[in-house]
Amino acid sequence: MSVSGxxxxxxxxxxxxxxxxxxxxxxxxxEARGERIVIVGGFxxxxxMRRPVGDYDLDVVIEGDGLAFSKALQGExxxxxxxxVSFLTSKLFSPFxxxxxxxxxxxxxxxxxxxxxxxxxxxxxxxxxxTSIENDLWRRDFSSNALALPLAAYRGLVSExxxxxxxAKQVIDPCCGLPDIKGATLRILHPQSFxxxxxxxxxxxxxxxxxxxxxxxxxxxxFYEAVRGGALATLSPRRxxxxxxxxxxDESPAEVIQxxxxxxxxxxxxxxxxxxxxxxxxxxxxxxxxxADVTPDEFVEAGxxxxxxxxxxxxxxxxxxxxxxxxxxxxxxxxDVDGGMALSNGRSRSDALxxxxxxxxxxxxxxxxxxxxx
Length: 374
Fold this sequence. Notes:
This protein is of the alpha+beta class and 374 residues long. Helices cover 48% and strands 14% of the residues. It has 2 domains: 1-183, Beta Polymerase, domain 2; 236-374, no CATH class. It contains 18 helices and 12 strands.
């Protein structure tokens, strides 16, 4: 992920690594191992849409042995490493051996083996097996995300050896995602997509809002069939809460949450009840205006406190506890419900921002900007 931080003498945030450094190292490793390597997912989509891509972790897929590849890449760029052997994926994360270079900078690099997936039952985690890159793209959620770009082509773009138009010609698109991007259409790849993985219901809404896309007819039908058919009941409370937290960090959190409510995504687990939806959305809209005054993590924490406070206020402590946010977060949310935070009690900026969203009291903005240390 592109992240601001303490700047070293060579110009890179401490512990992070330049995107170009990672690309060059990954290409060397792939060539040495004789493996195909591509960038996948939202990075490719947003690149082709000329949207900013600097706030993404780098996701690469290896046609071969992604776990062994990540070990070799770690030897090139350093960093900590975590494996998920059952999913054939691994993650490299900071601190890396930073050697300067141009922005954007990365805090994480995700490496996956090209794989196919089978679901034993709706909502279950998949069983994966290695496959080709083209087959891997067919397991993706939506056609606009089922795109792959050879890493060498991306290197040509950042080095200005290739234009974006030339790079677009090298995109691997077996699922016809490029026409859907051009037509601003969100399309699932399989009729049972939302049933197999109901978290895609939440992702679909986020993409429709963020990208100004529209559902195609089959996708919209599949969406509501999954909601009415009880697909959301197969998700644990924690997985639903994780989707809410992701939405808070999105570009337009209030609009996304409003769509979640209106499209019935909380009918099984009422994290936000329909009667409270408007109030929650207004509270989130209020804090968006001050997003630049806090860090991204502080903003997300403020949003979580707002939603937890509404849950506690409505007597749904059972659902608040099911989010697994922990006792400390529950105490903070309870303090917000019980009359707010005293201006002198040294709470964090996220508390101050949450209280402003809940009460619209300008005194909390003064605390946010001048008195509270994060």
